[in-house]
Design goal:
TATA-Binding Protein, seven-stranded antiparallel β-sheet, transmembrane
Length: 619
């Protein structure tokens, strides 16, 4: 029996030690510091980006290190979730242990303190007065009332005990701040969708890695349940198209989140500032049920999401949605500047004839607003920028596997009366664009330049030597057919611009030039679809946190106890002790005012001891 009792006592002691550890301030502060460091990493380092972006940014070694630590998706890692869960457990333990005592302190306030307890207060005053006990008690009570206290009196024999306090509900500040931390962290855990993480960990849910698969071909193991309690996915939706699922990046792959409705993008609108930066972009969206019933219709713009049945749809980005481009293809040196035609949508890869080259249409921009100085235009304070009009970006792959990225502007620019077709190129994504300015002829076409280039190459094959006379003579023959109405000044200006273009084409990486002749533009809206049911709890938790901090800082708890004794000669003796847990310097000045008022009423200090905080500790 004794052994069983000893075992139970040891178990209670162990549980008590565990409770003390979990509810300790040191553990809570350590967890908060770890959580802050992890959150800073998640804020500074862009999250849930393709792994190829991180590998290019950090290099192979640090890319592998950061991937192992889970820094590319901090908020989905097990260690981050563990920190948040442990903080919830620690704070809940602290609240459970201390709440009964805090409630007891709010309800109960002793009117009498022993002399040793009074002398142990931060501020202590001992005085004698010729006034009788009742008069001195009333005088002190009046001082306390003037300071906002509501003193209470207890009489025992020759002694009277006076007690007063302010900030009765100060302890609620601690309670509210701790409860707020529990609510916010618990709601964040709920939003983190722990069941999905567990499914990934056990292997029942496996991210897909092929980003080119259509939705119908994605493996079922990459699909999350349609009634998933919390998720955040993205989708790029072209105008006129409908989607019933979104995608969530997970490591080097993605998961598919089916939606309980279908999203249809009717139209997309965008407005620009004069600097070329987007001013506002809006998606006109219709939500349909799986049976085709209209559930909701409206506009989504930045910071103005559409909400339906606990799901929020945010406008996050925009891009090209598969615009149809019609292009003219000029082979450098082709006879008479002959051109072909290519047509395709952004995102497609086209074959450049039988040359072995392929053209991957990467993007289309409807507007290209740049500073006037960037294209050699004179400064104009009223119009500091110029719109270069539509452009498209494409990647040319040669038969050997090499490639170069090209950026072509549709509208020519004008310099000193001569029009120029602008063609940018770079051999690597990390390089800056280099530009070729090809002079344009009649109707803004580069056909005249291509014919001139072909004629010069033919003359070189026939053995002609390069000279200003040759350049002029060859151009005269070409211009007689293509631009017979041109003046001598126009011809001279074109020849000079052509020679400069020929020099810049020396490093041009591909043997042809594409120009944009027509386009059928289509926008695509980048939408973020979020279901975070814990968000409302987080908001209420933030309210509780702010209220608790306000109470802690602006509702200090001040306590005053006094013992007034009747002496044998009819005089009285006062022992006063007081303290506060905030604004200690202000309270010290208030206590000194009470002493001065009592002295003015004839009381004389026997001894006075006031323990003041050092100034550098703060109030």
């Amino acid at each position: 029996m004794q052994a069983q009792t000893d075992m139970m006592m040891r178990q209670r002691s162990q549980w008590r030690l565990l409770g003390s550890f979990l509810g300790s301030m040191r553990l809570a502060v350590s967890l908060l510091v770890l959580l802050a460091i992890a959150s800073i990493i998640g804020t500074i380092l862009s999250q849930q980006q393709p792994y190829s972006n991180y590998a290019l940014q950090f290099g192979p070694f640090w890319f592998a290190v950061f991937r192992t630590l889970g820094l590319y998706d901090v908020y989905r890692t097990a260690w981050y979730t563990g920190i948040v869960a442990f903080l919830v457990l620690s704070t809940a333990t602290c609240v459970t242990r201390n709440t009964p005592r805090m409630l007891r302190d709010i309800r109960e306030f002793p009117l009498r303190q022993r002399e040793n307890a009074l002398r142990a207060q931060p501020h202590v005053l001992e005085m004698v007065s010729a006034q009788d006990r009742d008069a001195l008690t009333e005088r002190l009570a009046t001082l306390l009332r003037a300071s906002g206290f509501r003193p209470r009196l207890l009489e025992e024999g020759d002694s009277q005990y006076l007690a007063a306090r302010k900030g009765k509900y100060h302890r609620l500040g601690y309670f509210l701040t701790h409860i707020a931390i529990i609510v916010i962290c618990a709601a964040a855990l709920y939003n983190a969708d722990i069941p999905v993480k567990w499914a990934e960990l056990t292997g029942s849910l496996r991210p897909a890695t092929d980003f080119d698969l259509p939705l119908s071909k994605i493996p079922a193991s990459a699909f999350m349940p349609v009634h998933n309690p919390a998720y955040r996915g993205i989708i790029t939706l072209p105008e006129g198209q409908t989607a019933d699922a979104v995608f969530e990046l997970a490591g080097n792959g993605y998961l598919v989140q089916p939606l309980p409705f279908r999203i249809h993008l009717k139209a997309f609108h965008i407005q620009y500032y004069s600097t070329g930066m987007p001013k506002d972009f809006v998606s006109d969206v219709v939500l349909y049920s799986p049976q085709g019933k209209v559930l909701k219709e409206g506009a989504i713009r930045v910071n103005h999401p559409m909400s339906y049945d606990g799901v929020d749809i945010y406008q996050s980005s925009f891009s090209d949605g598969g615009s149809l481009l019609t292009m003219r293809s000029y082979l450098l040196g082709a006879a008479d500047g002959h051109s072909g035609e290519l047509q395709g949508r952004v995102g497609q890869t086209l074959k450049a004839g039988n040359s072995g080259y392929s053209v991957q249409l990467k993007n289309f921009d409807l507007y290209n607003i740049v500073p006037r100085s960037a294209v050699g235009e004179p400064r104009d304070p009223r119009h500091p920028t110029v719109n270069l009009g539509p452009s498209f970006t494409y990647v040319v792959h040669d038969p050997q596997g090499g490639g170069a990225e090209m950026k072509t502007y549709m509208q020519p620019i004008t310099r000193d009366g001569q029009g120029f077709f602008v063609q940018g190129y770079r051999r690597s994504l990390g390089d800056a664009y280099q530009y070729v300015y090809i002079p344009t002829g009649p109707a803004g076409s580069i056909h005249l330049f291509m014919a001139y280039l072909a004629a010069l190459q033919q003359a070189a094959k026939e053995g002609a030597n390069a000279s200003p006379a040759l350049f002029s003579a060859v151009f005269d023959r070409v211009a007689a057919r293509a631009a017979p109405e041109w003046t001598a000044a126009q011809k001279e200006r074109f020849v000079e611009a052509s020679l400069q273009a020929l020099a810049s084409l020396h490093d041009y990486p591909v043997p042809f030039v594409l120009t944009l002749s027509q386009f059928d533009h289509r926008w695509a809206a980048g939408l973020q679809v979020t279901k975070w049911p814990g968000t409302t709890l987080i908001y209420w938790g933030c309210v509780a946190l702010v209220l608790g901090i306000f109470i802690l800082f602006y509702l200090p708890q001040q306590k005053v106890w006094a013992q007034i004794q009747r002496r044998a000669d009819g005089s009285s003796k006062l022992l006063l002790g007081a303290g506060t847990d905030r604004n200690r310097l202000d309270f010290a000045r208030q206590f000194a005012g009470w002493r001065a008022a009592l002295e003015a009423a004839g009381a004389q200090p026997i001894s006075a001891r006031e323990t003041h905080e050092e100034v550098h500790h703060g109030p």
